[in-house]
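[Automated response] Your request has been received and processed.

Submitted sequence:
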Amino acid sequence: MKAFLFVGLGNPGPRYNHTRHNIGFSWIDRVCELFPNVGWQERFEAHWLHVPFGDIEVHLLKPMTFMNISGKSVLAWKKKFQADSRTLVVMDDLDLGLGTLRLRPSGGDGGHKGLRSIMECLGTENIARLRLGVGRPQTEAKDYVLEKFSPKEREIVEELMDAVPEHFEILCRESFDSAMNKINAWRSKLAKADAELQKDNE
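Generated structure:
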């Protein structure tokens, strides 16, 4: 059975729950809800869950190493499940507006230290990633990503999370190109409405 690894990036501990930098964890947690009878295990310096899904074995991984050394956890998983496996990193992105998604098959780290750590540990840039927009900061980026979403932002995040089951199924069942076309076209209805309102007010 083929293995498909979904890696959500974030920081461990309640201090970081629901912060912008942990939206990758939130995405993975929403996928986990699709499998209520399967629990997290502590392995690979991570929270790890694996479950059959159709003709593939889905693995969910949330590194508990802190963001900047996330690669240690992914490398440990790869050493056991390397054969015939696919990997997708789910992460926050400052260069995308909140409520916007970008799926890409490879590329640079874009300044994201968690993705950089994974690239360094695996020795390649050929790592698929799903970038979840968190918006441009008005403050220092390092402070901004560790802040929690505002109530208004949270509404957009919840809309994004409600779409996770659909996006997860697309990623598992369709070709990567097809998944890119569908997921990259998705945008939060609330984010669209805000953008249109701001445009009208210019």
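Summary generated for your ticket: The mean pLDDT is 93. Residues 2-201 form a domain with the Rossmann fold fold (CATH 3.40.50.1470).
If you did not submit this request, please reply to this message.
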